[in-house]
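Following up on my earlier thread - several people asked me to post the actual chain instead of describing it. Fair enough. Here it is, all 331 residues.
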Amino acid sequence: MVVTLKDVAERAGVSRSAVSRSFTEGASVSAKTRAKVEKAANDLGYTPNALASSLTTGRTKLIGLIVNNFHNPLILEVFDLFTRGLQDRGLRPLLVNLSDATDPAASVKMLRQYSVDGVIVASSTLPSSFAESFQNAGLPVVHAFGRYAIAPDVHVVGIDNVACGRMAAEALVQRGYRRLAFLGGPRTATSTQDRVAGFLGALAPYPEIKVTTSYATDYSFDAGRAEMQRLLAETPAEAYFCGDDLLAVGALSAIEEAGLSVPGDIGLIGLNDMEMARWQLIGLTTIHQPVAQIIEAAIDLVVSIIETPDRPPEVRLFPCRVIERRTLRAL
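Reply from S.P.:
Thanks for posting it. Predicted structure:
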């Protein structure tokens, strides 16, 4: 038998509205009444109905979580950290899997139907205009892993991808490589555009260094492997900055399958420091992205702007660093 709010009210000897206020955060109710209600609820095994509570407070505690690129294992880590972080704060994630979609209209419509309190766009490949669509629809929004801008239109939490590109270039130059290449994800991805810009910009003062660029069809193992196979059929570079760890692992597979060694014949550096990069058989030198800190900050920020929706957009950037493993020459 389902225990109702009425049952709790009768057991505690109070009104139903007193029971409702006792379970509503910030509602006016005396400590004595709250204690009686909580005891009655515990005795009866009553749990407040979250949906009914939302009708009273005007808050659903639902946070829309917009995610794409699910074939990248890093997204599973991102999803895990986001969902646990939201639940720890008494919030509930409503997942929207974009797959290859780039039009936000359907997502905006769905999230408005569910009356979400806020939205987190968790993607480094979607343009800033995507998050802006939610803001224009009146939804508090944070773009996690979004593109850095000096004057942002929406709240952004992430890293400076241009700086990461520079960091990769500097690491390769320091190790004496003179034929370098960038192997990126899709050209249309903002993360790809910024990482290659930083990489090429840092190499501009070195006219003696030959630099080439190439792009995979997406951020995936298969795409990285296929692109490296194509490059090996030509004249490969001495070292590659792969714009994502998964691309780098795919490139590593193609290189070793061709009978070449890493780093003996070709050096590799990735970006993200995903779990796979740490595996002993891979040991990828990479640029560490502080994923957990970015997610925690994104949750903090979306909670803050739900409470203060008029606060101006801000950018929170986290520093990255090179993680030394086995796929580059030693310094």
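Residues 148 and 277 are 25 Å apart (CA to CA). That should answer part of your original question.
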